[in-house]
Each structure stands twice: as C-alpha cells, then as structure tokens.
Amino acid sequence: MRWLLTLLACVSAWSMTQVAIAQQIPPAAVSYRAPLIRVAHAEWGLDAPVATFAAQIQQESGWNPQAVSRVGAQGMAQFMPSTAQWWCSKNKISVIDCQPSNPTWAMRSLVQYDRWLYQQITAVNPCHRMAMALSAYNGGLGWVYRDQKHASSLGLDSRRYFSVVERVNAGRSAANFTENRDYPRRILFKYEPRYALWGQGSCTNEVHP
Is the whole-model pTM more than 0.85? Predict the structure, then answer.
C-alpha cells in the first residue's frame, strides 16, 4: 500500500508540474494547437516534434498572425518577404496564396521549412540536428555550413551543435552571432518544455547542454 501511495504522490506532483508549465503558454496559442498538430503530423509523421514548432512560433511572434518585425519579417512564422517569395516559388504556391500573415500558411510553411532545413544537415542526434536547423532558420543555412566547416578546421566535431558549432563564428557580426546562438536555446530549452502536452520535442530527452 505504501508503494501505491508513493506512486500516486509522484504522479500527482508530475501532473501539477505539467499544468504549471502549460499555464506559461500564451492564451493566443490555444486555438492553434489542433491545426499545428495536424500540419506537423502531415509533414513529419506521427513522431513530429510538435512542441518544438510551437516553441518556435512563440519565439518568433508570440502567436500573433499580424506581427511585423522592425526589419520587415511577417506573420506568426516571421518570414521575410524575400524568403516567403522564394519559398512559395520553390513549392509552386501562387502569389495570391503566398500569405505570411495567414496563420494556416505560416504554420504550414514553418513546419515545412524546418523539415527542409533539417534534411540538409547532418548531426549526432535529433536535438543537435534541430538546433542547427533552427540556427539556419534564423540566420541562413549557408552560415551553418560555414560554421561547421570552421569547426572542422579547428579539429572539432562539426556534427555537434551545442558547446561545439555554437561556439564557432565563421564571420558574423557580434550582434548577429549572439542573436543566432540564443535562438535555438530559447526555443529548445526555454519554450519547448511548456508545450510538452502538445507532443514530443526535439530535445525532450536531452540533458541541457
């Protein structure tokens, strides 16, 4: 009986923790939970890192479909106009349907673009791989490749993002470097756990590096 009481206490404590974490999710996110899960499963399969995508949207726009950054990035996924134009052209999406401020377009494009970036990268595990994909989303895939090449030239393992590639700067300005390195960490270790009840994350089982 004692072991059962202990188990129930542990389950109760875990449930309370999850509720407390979930309460940190912006109210605006709730209505987008189901459509995000649908598009994530459609593009990545049933093991899609839904929590990662939700965390990324929170980081990008706070779930505001009308968000516009000071540099002109638009919508929930904060696509720059030039990136949106390239992405729509690449995927044969008509000009009229290329709508960064449309929540459905934004969620689908973020999930698809993350998938495309993820497929271009080799890493030691899904957590490191997604971190590099997020770095590419924020600052460009070319910079990730340059950083990996520079890491290799220093005798480092270019397949490891945390504590390796993330510490290497192949030539970005100090401000851009700081912003880019903060981006994956905020998504994967600050916001991703808040969306654990939505689905798995990329770094759910990873020790915080």
Answer: yes
